[in-house]
Amino acid sequence: MTSHILHVDMDAFFVSAELVRRPELRGQPVVVGGTGGRGVVAAASYEARSFGIFSAMSTYQARRLCPRAIFLQGDHSYYASVSSKVMEIFERYTPLVEPISLDEAFLDVGGSMRLHGLPFEIAQSIRRDINHEQGLSCSVGIAPNKFLAKLATEEAKPSPGPKGPIPGLGVKIVEEHEIQEFLDPLPVRSLWGVGPVTVSRLDQMGVTTVFQLRSFPRDSLIQALGKTLGAHLHRLAHGVDERNVEAHQAAKSLSHEETFSEDLYSEQRITTEIFRMADAVGKRLRGLGFLGTTVSLKVRLKDFSTFTRSITLLNPTDSGRVIGKNALSLIEGIDLSSGVRLLGVGVQNLTESDLGLQLSFDDIGKDGPEWRDAEEAIDKIQERFGSQSIGAASTLTEKGVRPKEKGSQQWGPSND
DNA sequence: TCTGGGGTCCTCAGACGA
DNA sequence: TCTGTCGTCTGAGGACCC
Questions:
Q1: Which of A18, A47, A104, A273 is catalytic?
Q2: pLDDT: which is higher, A202 or A366
């Protein structure tokens, strides 16, 4: 059987997308992310990477490494629109496309070869289409399963150089008979599910490479790392990954969280922000046609200590007001006096809303069907006149001002 | 002067009913 | 009626992913 799982990863996607609409920045160190004091880097151009800047680094640190770099506030909705065009290109070659994020997807081309050629040829066609139509470049890994295809992509990627990317292979294939040879020299950190904590635990066991991991008895791994992780890593070390490419994956949770540019101390302001985020969650739920059953609240204090609390409702809801009231009730017992750095509101246990909205006695009255109608009307007005045009009174600050929508500030506060 | 946001999955502890 | 056990559910927290 040939390797027929493709992993496609866009090269420096957010930065490359920005360069398409701002070509004058080509060849410069460009960083996309949160531009404020508390932001992080979402993507860095290959020129910026040669200064040691990488994703998830704080913007503060990135500025110190390269003061002349150009910092752009991320624009999530623009990247999402570019991403959907890229995904459409993938779907020309196979219906089995599983997006992992805006810039990555798995493709199963096992059934497409008669029409489109060998996996390598399909990969080349996809790269050509994306380059011609969107002005972007991507790297492709091809292997018998998802895990190996993703690792193969890493070997296909360009590397950073001071004058821009040094081209990589573009496409890397791992065939069945090459699996062990490919995997063995890799560090354990490259395995899916191995982060800093697991690296250090494996290191204490004298395991730093996949070869050493593969030589470790399965039972000992399970004893050291637990049943799930131990068995998982044992399979991966042998190149085994049975997961299929799933074209349609239902969301399991939905949340909205924000780090504030300055810590919050005012109870009124904290309440307002919780209701504003709950409103945003409710709006997204209604847009997607989902109801949430469990409401959760996340609080991060000035010292970075983080608390999560959740409550399961009697009846699922898509009302921002109901979510907000429940989220607010969860804050009791948390000492906020040191200052609140981050707040987050989310829902889990999602069901489709066309299954019917059941109301409990608690829902009837000011949070009942009339309120839900009002929220739908607000959605329509905001769609037409903008998010600042209207909203619930509970989302106003003590000065009667509606806090600015921060939906696009996905990588921390901006500096405006 | 630092350490985002949106997710998934896992582990552990406590509550609870059979 | 009391006690222990087991399975299940819920909630909190952590690790990890992009």
A1: A104
A2: A202
Query: Strands A70-73, A97-101: parallel, antiparallel or unpaired by DSSP?
Result: unpaired
Provide the CA A375 to C1' C2 distance, Å, integer: 54
pLDDT score, position A364: 43
pLDDT at A78: 92
| Nucleic acid strand B within 7 Å of A202 CB | no
Residue ranges of domains in chain A, CATH in brackets: 184-234 (1.10.150.20), 253-401 (3.30.1490.100)
- In this prediction, residues A127-132 reach a mean pLDDT of 96
- Compute the CA torsion angle A128, A134, A136, A138 (nearest 10 deg): -50
pLDDT tens figures, A180-234: 999 999 999 889 888 888 888 888 888 999 999 999 888 888 888 887 888 889 9
> Which chain B positions have some atom within 7 A of a protein CB?
1-12
Nearest residue (CA) to C1' of C18: A101
Bases on strand C under 7 Å from any protein CB: 10-18
Q: What is the secondary structure of A354-387 as a DSSP string? A: GG-----GGGSSTTSHHHHHHHHHHHHHHHHH-T
Residue located via tokens 């540019």: A261
CA of A267 to C1' of C16 (A): 33
Q: Which residues contact A102 (CB under 8 A, 6 or more apart)?
A: A13, A79, A80, A83
CA quadruple A184, A188, A189, A195: dihedral, nearest 10: 150
**CA A115 – C1' B5 distance (Å)?**
40
A155 is a catalytic site residue = no
- Say yes or no to pLDDT of A310 above 70: yes
Residue entry with tokens 């609240």: A297
Q: Please give the mean pLDDT across all residues of chain A.
A: 85
- Reduced DSSP (H G I as helix, E B as strand, rest coil) percent helix, strand, coil of chain A, to 5: 40, 20, 35
Average pLDDT for A100-124: 94
How many other β-carbons are positioned within 10 Å of the β-carbon of residue A352?
Answer: 12
Residue A134 Cα to chain centre, angstroms? 22
Of A19 and A351, the structure prediction assigns the larger pLDDT to: A19
* Mean per-residue pLDDT, A373-402: 62
Protein CA at A223 to nucleotide C1' at C4, angstroms: 28
A342 touches strand B (CB under 7 A): yes
